Amino acid sequence: MSYFDYYQPTEILFGQSRVNEIGAVAKRFGGRALLVTVPVFPEIEPVVKKIKSVLSQEKIEIEHFDQVIPNPTVDVVASGAELAARFKAEFVIGLGGGSSIDTAKAIAVEATHNGSCWDYLFFRENQPTEKTLSVIAIPTTSGTGSHVTQVAVVTNPSERKKSALYHPRLYPKVAIADPELMLTLPPYMTAVTGFDAFSHAFESFIARQCSPYTEILALEGLRLIIKHLPAAVQESNNLEAREKMAWADTLAGLCIANSAVTLPHGIAMAMSGLYPQIAHGQALASIYPAVMKFTHEYAIDKFAKVARLLNPDLASISDREAAAGFSVEIDNFIRKLGIKRSLGEIGVVKTELPLLARVSLELPDYKNHPYVVKAEEVERLLSECY
Questions:
Q1: Cα gap 135→175, rounded to integer Å
Q2: Taking a C-beta distance cutoff of 8 angstroms, is the pair 126, 119 a contact?
Q3: What CATH number corresponds to the domain at position 275?
Q4: Does residue 227 belong to any structural domain of this protein?
Q5: C-alpha pair distances (Å), 270 with each of 19, 71, 108, 150, 301
Q6: pLDDT tens digits for 231-274?
Q7: How does DSSP classify residue 133?
Q8: How many CB atoms lie within 10 A of CB 224?
Q9: What H or E segment, with its residue span, contains residue 268?
Q10: 210 within 8 A of 299, measured Cβ to Cβ
Q11: Of 127, 141, 63, which is closest to residue 99 (Cα–Cα)?
Q12: Are 121 and 266 contained in the same domain?
């Protein structure tokens, strides 16, 4: 067994109605909270009201920043950080999908440090210090795993780039994963966020940095997603499916916090930087079959294992044959979820494929892939997906 490390400092409160415990949790971190959400819409309004009410009962003062957008920008983070500083927030609560939680983490840094959150990206000399505000994460989707990771993804529109702050200080202090909060998530968003969770689990499983610990978590996450994500898409109020997906998403987040992701995430991050309107999970779904068909021979045993989770009938054939069939099985799964789209259909500009290929290799994700690609190989794969 090779040497490996595993680190996870986030306290996880999992289960139905656990959001009711936010008051007792929050008062451990101070008396002034910045609540970070998207603009409040009818489906999320009851939980926002509940959280504000419970916090008020605990005598915690609240300022609400409700300007989060998909693929949150540095300007959004700056607005939230300015509000947090002016309010003298002692901690931050991120309520929502990955965009809200990532924004909360980035605000926790920018509100307490000089400059922009963009100055604290993972490869910069300056990194978050002990001044970083504590974050409580309350996910309302089952997709990004951000409630248990040290990552905050942000977009810089002026540079047409999407990158990440990555530091142990960004792990939320507490994550409240309450599957009841996912019941109102629409089918398409359930599908694309759920596929993001699949990608986290699968990529951490095939990654060069994978350890025996993350293998166990990843395989269980994949098993749960394959079994329960279609039901969550088809029956929004299926609480059992939502609960299993909430746990699978948490497992996948624990995986990427320690094993990281691979080439598809590098491409999808670059794609969202160039085209912010494209949902991250949709970007992944649009490239997955082609990228994995190209990759399977470099991790035959692992591809075969997951192919058989997707289609148990593959148990009777060799590992090599099952691994080769993975791309077909994942394509069928994506179709089943209703998110089969080409790059052209989701808005990628064909003449920018060389640019997208080049930018896809600026983040280090591709180095963690079973096979380390060249830019011309990425461009060829993107052309196949167009």
A1: 9
A2: yes
A3: 1.20.1090.10
A4: yes
A5: 34, 12, 24, 20, 29
A6: 999 999 999 999 999 999 999 999 999 998 999 999 999 999 99
A7: P
A8: 24
A9: helix 263-274
A10: no
A11: 141
A12: no
Sign of the torsion formed by the C-alpha atoms of 239, 306, 153 and 137: positive
CA distance 50 to 47: 5
pLDDT digits (tens, 9 = 90+) for 124-161: 999 999 999 999 999 999 999 999 999 999 999 999 99
Tell me the three state secondary structure of residue 79. helix
CA pair distance 314, 309, nearest whole angstrom: 9
3-state secondary structure of 173: coil
Q: What is the mean pLDDT of the chain?
A: 97
Distance CA 137, CA 25 (A): 11
The closest of 314, 146, 302 to 214, measured between CA atoms, is 302
Low-confidence ranges of the chain (pLDDT < 50): none
CA-nearest of 190, 198, 108, 121 to 155 is 121
Report the half-sphere exposure of 368 (CA within 13 A, side-chain side).
Answer: 24
Give the alpha-carbon dihedral of 344, 349, 351, 353, to 10 degrees.
Answer: -80
Give the pLDDT confidence score for residue 3 in this predicted structure.
85
Give yes or no for a contact between 3 and 147, defined as CB atoms under 8 angstroms apart. Answer: no
- Residue 2 has a pLDDT of 74
Which amino acid is residue 31, in one-letter code?
G
> Are 196 and 171 part of one and the same domain?
no
What is the span of the domain harbouring residue 269? 187-385
**Which two three-digit tokens encode residue 218?**
């990843």
Does residue 264 sit in the same domain as residue 153? no
Q: What is the SS3 assignment for 335-384?
A: HHHCCCCCHHHHCCCHHHHHHHHHHHCCCHHHHHCCCCCCHHHHHHHHHH
Query: In the prediction, which pLDDT does 1 show?
Result: 61
Neighbour count for residue 1 (Cβ, 10 Å): 5
| pLDDT tens string 159-186 | 999 999 999 999 999 999 999 999 999 9
